Write a sequence for this structure.
C-alpha cells in the first residue's frame, strides 16, 4: 500500500459517496449520473487501450454494442438471468478483439486503428441486417431489470460500484510488470521486444481487456434502458468516448472518468441531436491542439512557472 | 451480358474510389498517417454541387473540399511539431469526419442526393453503358496522368518524393517538408472534391456515406500496394467491380460488407507498411 496506488481509488470512492449524497433520489440527476458511469467505463477502456498501450480503437462503442446485444438476446429472447449474461457480455467483445488485434497488430498501430474502424462499420451493418436475431432496424426491447438494483437509485450505485471495481483492477494492472511492459511498448515497441516482451500478444490482450470493459458498459447500458438498437451505441459514441478520454487525460487513471463527467454534463444541454457530432468533432480537435495530455495530464506546476 | 453491365457499373463506381485512393496513398507515403475524413470531403462536395448546381456549384464544391482538407493539413503540421505520434492525426481526422457527417445531416438533411446527366444509355455490343462512364474514366485518367506529371516532372514532386523517403534527410537537404506535407493535404482535398462531384452523378451521396467511401478507397489504396498513383487507381476500379458484382449477385448489405472483409485481409497480410514503399526504416 506504500506506493500510493490506492490514493486515486480512495479519491474516487469519496467522490462517489459525495455525489450520491448530493443527488439523493432526484430522478433526472440519477439518470445523468448513471449515464456518466457507463460512459466513464467506456472512457476508461479508451484510457487503457489508447493511453496505456497506444492502440487507437475507434470501435469502443461497437464493443459495448456487442456486450449489450449479447445480454439483450440471451435475457430477452432466451430468458437467461442477467447475472448469467454478464460474463458473456464481458467475454464476447474480448474474444472478438483479441484475434482482430493479433492478426493485425504485428504491423503498425495505424493498421490496427483502421481495422477497428472496419470492424465498427461491419458490426453496424451486421446488426441492421441481423434479422430475427438482432431485431434489425427495430432492435430489441424488453430487456429485464437486474434484481439486486430495482430502483434507479440502486442501479446508479451498482454502476458506480462497477466503475470503482474496474478502477481498482486498472490501478493494480498499471503497477504490475504488465503495466510497465505496456508503457515500454507505447514508447518504443522495438525496445520492448528487446526486453523480452511479446509485443503482439500484450497489445492484443490489452485491446481485449479494453473491449471487455466496453462490453461491461454495454451490459449496464442494456439493463438500464431495457432496449438496444443499431442506433444506440454507434460510431459517433466511439468518437465521444475518445473525446472524453482525451479531455480528461488518457494516460492518467481517473482522467477518463473526469472527462466523461465534464463532456456529459456539457453536452446534456445541447439543443439538437443532429448537431452533436459537430460539437464532439470540433471539441476533440480543439483538445488535441490545445491540451493533448488532457485536464489531469496538464503540468499545472510548469504552467505556473511559465506564467 | 448482365455480368458485363455489372462490371461497367463497377468501373463507373471504381473511378471515384480510385480518385480517393490517390490522395490516401500520397498522404500516407508523405506523412505516414491516414486521413479518414477523405470520404467526408467527397460527400460535402457532392452535396454542395447538388444544392448549388452548375459550374459555380462545382467550383464551390471543390473549393470547400480543399478548404476542409487544409484543416487536416494544418493539424498534421501542428501535431507533428508537437512530437505526437501518427495516431493523433488519425484521431483528429476521425473527429473531422464525424463533424462533417453531422454538419451534412444538419444542413442538407437525411435524404440522399443523386443527379443523372444522361437518360439515354449507349449500347456497346449489346451492353447498356451509361455515358457517365466516359466522363468518369476521362476525368480519372486525366487526374492519374496529372499526378504522374506532378510527382515525376516538377520540383514539388521531387521534394515530395524526397520527404517520403526520409523526412529528416529531406529537411537536411533544405526541403520545406512541412510545406510539402501541407500541400499534399490540399491536393487530397482537390481529389476528394472532384471525386465527390463524380459520385453525385454516379451513385449519389447521403450524409452517412463518408466513412464507407473512405474505407472502400482505403482498400483500393492498399490493394495493389501504395507505390504509385496508378496502383491506387486500379485498386479503386477493382474494388468498384467487386462491390458491383456483390450488389448484383448477393444482397446489398453483404455487398457493402465484402470490401470491408477484403480490407481486413489486406491489413492482416501486412500490405500497409511504409517500409515496403520507401525502403528501410521509415
Amino acid at each position: 500500500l506504500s506506493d500510493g496506488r490506492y490514493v486515486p481509488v480512495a479519491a474516487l470512492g469519496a467522490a462517489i459517496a459525495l455525489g450520491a449524497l448530493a443527488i439523493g433520489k432526484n430522478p433526472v440527476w440519477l439518470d445523468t449520473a448513471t449515464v456518466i458511469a457507463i460512459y466513464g467505463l467506456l472512457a476508461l477502456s479508451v484510457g487503457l487501450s489508447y493511453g496505456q498501450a497506444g492502440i487507437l480503437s475507434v470501435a469502443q462503442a461497437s464493443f459495448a454494442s456487442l456486450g449489450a446485444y449479447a445480454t439483450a438476446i440471451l435475457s430477452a429472447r432466451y430468458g437467461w438471468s442477467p447475472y448469467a449474461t454478464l460474463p458473456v457480455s464481458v467475454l464476447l467483445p474480448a474474444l472478438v478483439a483479441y484475434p482482430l488485434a493479433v492478426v493485425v497488430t504485428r504491423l503498425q498501430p495505424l493498421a490496427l486503428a483502421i481495422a477497428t474502424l472496419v470492424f465498427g462499420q461491419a458490426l453496424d451493418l451486421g446488426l441492421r441486417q441481423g434479422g430475427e436475431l438482432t431485431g434489425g432496424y427495430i432492435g430489441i426491447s424488453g430487456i429485464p431489470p437486474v434484481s439486486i438494483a430495482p430502483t434507479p437509485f440502486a442501479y446508479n450505485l451498482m454502476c458506480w460500484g462497477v466503475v470503482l471495481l474496474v478502477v481498482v483492477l486498472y490501478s493494480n494492472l498499471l503497477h504490475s510488470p504488465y503495466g510497465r511492459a505496456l508503457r515500454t511498448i507505447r514508447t518504443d515497441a522495438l525496445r520492448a521486444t528487446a526486453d523480452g516482451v511479446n509485443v503482439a500478444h500484450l497489445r492484443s490482450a490489452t485491446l481485449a481487456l479494453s473491449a471487455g470493459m466496453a462490453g461491461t458498459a454495454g451490459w449496464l447500458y442494456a439493463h438500464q434502458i431495457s432496449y438496444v438498437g443499431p442506433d444506440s451505441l454507434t460510431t459517433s459514441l466511439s468518437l465521444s468516448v475518445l473525446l472524453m478520454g482525451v479531455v480528461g487525460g488518457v494516460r492518467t487513471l481517473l482522467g477518463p472518468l473526469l472527462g466523461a463527467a465534464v463532456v456529459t454534463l456539457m453536452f446534456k444541454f445541447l439543443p439538437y441531436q443532429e448537431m452533436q457530432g459537430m460539437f464532439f468533432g470540433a471539441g476533440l480537435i480543439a483538445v488535441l491542439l490545445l491540451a493533448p495530455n488532457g485536464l489531469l495530464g496538464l503540468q499545472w506546476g510548469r504552467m505556473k512557472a511559465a506564467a | 451480358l448482365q455480368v458485363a453491365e455489372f462490371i461497367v457499373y463497377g468501373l463507373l463506381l471504381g473511378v471515384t474510389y480510385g480518385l480517393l485512393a490517390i490522395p490516401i496513398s500520397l498522404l500516407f507515403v508523405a506523412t505516414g498517417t491516414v486521413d479518414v475524413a477523405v470520404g467526408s470531403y467527397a460527400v460535402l462536395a457532392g452535396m454542395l454541387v447538388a444544392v448549388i448546381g452548375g459550374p459555380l456549384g462545382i467550383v464551390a464544391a471543390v473549393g470547400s473540399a480543399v478548404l476542409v482538407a487544409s484543416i487536416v493539413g494544418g493539424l498534421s503540421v501542428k501535431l507533428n511539431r508537437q512530437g505526437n505520434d501518427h495516431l493523433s492525426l488519425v484521431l483528429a481526422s476521425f473527429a473531422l469526419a464525424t463533424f462533417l457527417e453531422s454538419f451534412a445531416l444538419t444542413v442538407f438533411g437525411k435524404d440522399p442526393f443523386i443527379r443523372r446527366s444522361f437518360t439515354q444509355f449507349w449500347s456497346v455490343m449489346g451492353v447498356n453503358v451509361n455515358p457517365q462512364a466516359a466522363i468518369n474514366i476521362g476525368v480519372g485518367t486525366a487526374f492519374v496522368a496529372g499526378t504522374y506529371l506532378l510527382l515525376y516532372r516538377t520540383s514539388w514532386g521531387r521534394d515530395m518524393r524526397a520527404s517520403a523517403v526520409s523526412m529528416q534527410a529531406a529537411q537536411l537537404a533544405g526541403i520545406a517538408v512541412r510545406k510539402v506535407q501541407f500541400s499534399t493535404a490540399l491536393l487530397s482535398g482537390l481529389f476528394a472534391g472532384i471525386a465527390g462531384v463524380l459520385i453525385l452523378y454516379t451513385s449519389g451521396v447521403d450524409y452517412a456515406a463518408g466513412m464507407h467511401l473512405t474505407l472502400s478507397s482505403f482498400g483500393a489504396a492498399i490493394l495493389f500496394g501504395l507505390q504509385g498513383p496508378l496502383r491506387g487507381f486500379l485498386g479503386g476500379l477493382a474494388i468498384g467491380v467487386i462491390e458491383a458484382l456483390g450488389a448484383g449477385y448477393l444482397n446489398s448489405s453483404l455487398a457493402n460488407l465484402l470490401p470491408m472483409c477484403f480490407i481486413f485481409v489486406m491489413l492482416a497480410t501486412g500490405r500497409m507498411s511504409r517500409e515496403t514503399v520507401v525502403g528501410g526504416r521509415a
User: Anything to note?
Assistant: The two ends of chain B are 47 Å apart (CA to CA).
